[in-house]
């Protein structure tokens, strides 16, 4: 099991980010990436906090640009989700297969069993199963093999990866899978063996990816990827607790996407981590991910866990004011909704491409 970071360790990890080394090495599977996404996705820390910590360290403008851009990709995808809450199941710009590629349901067995024969990919998938983390480049390699090489439907691959990631995030996951297979971009993403050797530190040849970029899109589905499976995913939720609610106090609702330990910290309040079975039926996550959120909730004093639907929670108890954080996947009738933290709250709405969004963000970044 991976070691989860305490809040003290997390603060130290944010402070230790070196944007220069990040910019130079982030594409290598062993590069100096932050590995903070599980904490960002679970709402423990925000992209804004990371940005402010890096800016405080006094780096010259542009030195940190690559890191800022990557952080902004996350906020960009969240903005897309606000406009397209169905993006985990509906292609944003075009359907796969419009170019004549044959698309089929399921995921290649060789991917599920981490035996594609591409060492950089197979090792990464084993890491995903054991640690719940995948490097961005490895995610792109895997998604490209599943969709563009094997002709798999992006939704199946996305669901499988989401299930295993501690940083499972419907926006980043759905948009990225769609981006790779050009359902949300203008061009499919391919990586050949030479590229994987460079970034994964391997020296393989003769694999099904040992091709030129002209050859890859024309290639028939490799034999080793022909058998597909459609695994069923389920979430094992913990037991619900008997709640102790003081109706004279406000009630803060925490979710899978909001485990912010600093949210109204120190205020007398009821604090409930609401785990709705309907949410996890739609977006199933692994046992490791459930262990992770139960670990995270322990750093929020007074937190109680309710496993059930919001409507039942309200029917079973008497509440005063209920407060939640905005997130497109959740709607809590009668609750006051507070905004999430954004790097650039001024830049909102739907942008068809990241670079349109980033251009606007840059103005605010360099004015800081
Ligand atoms: C197919 C695919 C599926 C993905 N699924 C998810 C997912 O479910 N959850 C998720 O959080 N990210 C997802 N990503 C985006 C990205 O891969 C991860 O956020 C990143 O690898 C996290 O590692 P890190 O914290 O070490 O990132 P770092 O490189 O250290 O970056 C710092 C932070 O910036 C943000 N970030 C960096 N790169 C990206 C990116 N390309 N897109 C969005 N945000 C980024 C993350 O919040 C990250 O924590 C996916 C990418 C692909 C290609």
Mean pLDDT: 96
Indicate the overall shape: globular
* CATH homology superfamily name of the largest domain: DNA Cyclobutane Dipyrimidine Photolyase, subunit A, domain 3
Order of helices and strands: HHHHHEHHHHHHEEEHHEHEEH
**Unreliable residue runs:** none
Q: What percentage of amino acids are in beta strands?
A: 5-15%
The hetero molecules present are:
flavin-adenine dinucleotide
CATH topology of the largest domain: DNA Cyclobutane Dipyrimidine Photolyase, subunit A, domain 3
Report how far the terminal alpha carbons are from each other. 40 Å
Structurally, the number of domains stands at 3
* Residues in helix, %: 40-55%
Instruction: Tell me the Rg in angstroms.
Output: 21 Å
The CATH architecture of the largest domain can be named as Orthogonal Bundle
Trace the largest sheet across and list its strands.
Answer: 5-4-3-6-7
* SS element count, helices: 15
Report the top-level CATH class of the largest domain. Answer: Mainly Alpha
Label the structural class.
alpha/beta
Q: What characterizes the major β-sheet?
A: 5 strands, parallel
């Amino acid at each position: 099991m991976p070691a989860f970071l305490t809040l003290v360790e997390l603060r130290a990890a944010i402070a230790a980010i070196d944007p220069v080394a990040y910019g130079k090495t982030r594409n290598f599977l062993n590069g100096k990436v932050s590995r903070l996404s599980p904490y960002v996705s679970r709402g423990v820390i925000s992209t804004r906090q990371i940005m402010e910590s890096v800016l405080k360290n006094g780096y010259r403008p542009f030195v940190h640009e690559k890191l800022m851009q990557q952080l902004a990709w996350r906020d960009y995808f969240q903005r897309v989700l606000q406009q397209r809450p169905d993006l985990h199941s509906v292609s944003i710009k075009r359907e796969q297969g419009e170019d004549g590629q044959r698309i089929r349901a399921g995921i290649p067995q060789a991917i599920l069993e981490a035996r594609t024969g591409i060492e950089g990919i197979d090792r990464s998938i084993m890491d995903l199963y054991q640690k719940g983390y995948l490097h961005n480049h490895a995610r792109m390699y895997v998604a490209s093999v599943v969709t563009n090489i094997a002709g798999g439907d992006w939704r199946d691959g996305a669901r499988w990866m989401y299930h295993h990631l501690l940083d499972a995030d419907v926006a980043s996951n759905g948009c990225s899978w769609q981006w790779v297979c050009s359902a949300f971009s203008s061009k499919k993403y391919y990586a050949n063996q030479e590229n994987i050797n460079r970034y994964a530190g391997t020296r393989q040849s003769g694999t099904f990816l040992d091709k030129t970029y002209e050859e890859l899109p024309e290639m028939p589905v490799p034999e080793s990827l022909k058998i597909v499976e459609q695994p069923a995913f389920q979430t094992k939720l913990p037991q619900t607790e008997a709640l102790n609610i003081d109706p004279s106090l406000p009630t803060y609702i925490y979710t899978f996407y909001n485990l912010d330990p600093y949210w109204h910290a120190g205020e007398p309040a009821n604090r409930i981590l609401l785990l709705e079975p309907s949410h996890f039926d739609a977006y199933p996550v692994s046992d490791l991910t459930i262990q992770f959120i139960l670990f995270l909730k322990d750093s929020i004093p007074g937190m109680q866990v309710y496993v059930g639907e919001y409507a039942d929670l309200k029917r079973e108890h008497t509440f005063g004011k209920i407060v939640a954080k905005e997130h497109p996947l959740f709607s809590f009738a009668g609750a006051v909704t507070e905004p999430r933290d954004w790097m650039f709250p001024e830049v909102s709405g739907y942008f068809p491409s990241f670079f349109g969004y980033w251009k606007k963000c840059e103005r605010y970044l360099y004015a800081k």
